[in-house]
Each structure stands twice: as structure tokens, then as C-alpha cells.
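User: For my dataset I need records formatted as: sequence, then C-alpha cells, nothing else. Please produce one.
Assistant:
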Amino acid sequence: MGNTFYFNWEVSLMEFLQAHLGKFGIAFASFCSTLGQEMVMIAVLGFFYWAWDKKCGKHIGLNIVVGGVLFPMIKNIALRRRPYMDHPSIQCLKKVDADADIMDIAAQGYSFPSGHATNSMLAYGSVAQYQKKKPITIIVTIVIALIGISRFCVGVHYPTDVLCGWALGLIVMAIIPRLSAIIKKDWVLFLILLVVGLPGFFYCTSNDFYTSYGMMLGGFMGFLFEERYVNFEGTRKPLQIVLRVVIGAGLFFALNTALKLPFSSAFLDSGTTAALLVRTFRYAIVIFLLIGVYPLSFKLLDKIGQKRG
């Protein structure tokens, strides 16, 4: 199942890197890959949106959710198999789904473009784009490069997956802020972006599209709700920052787990239309609560932080 296409130099490069990485290199590549995973993205977005600079956080979040919907839409058209699936000489050193067989393409997903490369460009790159400070741009560039390179070092992506993931991230970062400047009403912009993602429901079969669309839907509703009913303020106080981010991250996992309880594991993993739609609405509810409702607790959290400080 899926398509196989690649350049010979990609396979040769990956074989060379894996042959010379050594134990430390493998461990370092795995660590760099982790910097592009869901939990880290939540921490980055949470730090800026919930605490440091809400406008910057909204800028990052808008870019992330749009890119998060677009890359699986492309993946489900290209249907490119992962490198190790077609080249026995390439090892899978870090599975996408740790609990599934490495050859289970439904669980491990397709290869083109790299979601880690896209998301890291959007998360970290959006920070540099908004802050416009040279030291931040340099650090961000290094982090993005390490994450992308790590993906073909661990054997789960071809180098062209990574290059195109970076390109997609840059395109989103170029277009979305300009659309935001042109379309003055947020709800109109959000509606347009939701419509752009709708075709994915007719052909996407991988979980990542339905997760990302749910996050986009919940994020948009959350932004609108927060602006109208909450309008919280950021903080630069370390303890308050820690409380907001740690509790928010904990709520993400707690809510996600709680919303799974009414359904069996067999149903959730079935890949049926009903299961995929449940995934979409589960993530929409979780992200809406975190973006729009959770900030209602910040005044109480800040009082706790002041007392302990």
C-alpha cells in the first residue's frame, strides 16, 4: 500500500549517516526528533499564548493549525511510503507510533512531507518571525535544522520529505499573516481556512488530518471566545508562567484521556469514518477549552503564584 519514489542520493545519504552515527549520534538524533513532537509544540505554544505574549502565541497557533491541516492533505495525495519500508539497508530508529509494527503504514503514516519539519518550522519559525530578533532567529534556525536532519537520520523520512516540509512551513508563514492583515474580521478568516481544509474529509485516511482539523476548529473557536469573554493578560513572573504552562499541559492530556472513555479502544483505533470524526471533535473540544476557557482560571493561578512567591 502506498507509493515509492525517491532519488538515489537520498538513500545513499541515509545509509551513510546511519552507518556512522554511532550510539551517541543515534541518541542525539532521537532527542532532536523529540523537539518536534506534539508535547513540545504544546509547551512552546502554551508558553507564549498563556503567559509570555498572547499576541505572539496567537500568531504561532494560527500558523501551526493551518500547516497542521495542509501537510496531511498533501500526504494523503502523495501516499509516499517511509524509507525503511522499501530499503532494508535503512533502519527505523524511532517509530512514529511506538505501539504499532513498523510496517503498519496505517499506524506509522505516510512520509511526504515531514510533519516534524513542517511543525517545527511553523512553531519555532513563527517565534522568530514575530519577535524579529537576530539571536532568536539564529537559535531557531539551528533547532529547525537539527529536527529536520534527525528525521532522515532515524530512517523515517527521505531528505526531500524534510525539505518540502520546511518549504510548506515557510509558505504558510508567508501567507497567513498577510491574510490576517487583509481580512480584518477574525471569524471571516477562520471560516475561509476551515473551508480550505474541508476537502480532506473526502479522501484523507490518516489520523493526523482529523487530529489537526479538530485542533484548528477548536483553536479558532477558542480564540474568538477568549477575545470576547475572557481577554486575559500575560505575565512575566516565573512562577505564574510555570503554573499556567504546566497545568495547561496536564489538562491537555487529562481532557484527551477523559473524552476517550465513552469509546472502546477497538473503536477509536478502527479507522472508520465515525472513529475519525470522533477524533476530530475530541481534539476540537480539548483545544477550545484550553485556548478559550482555561484562561478564566489565570486570576486564581496568579494569586496562588503571588502567595508562594
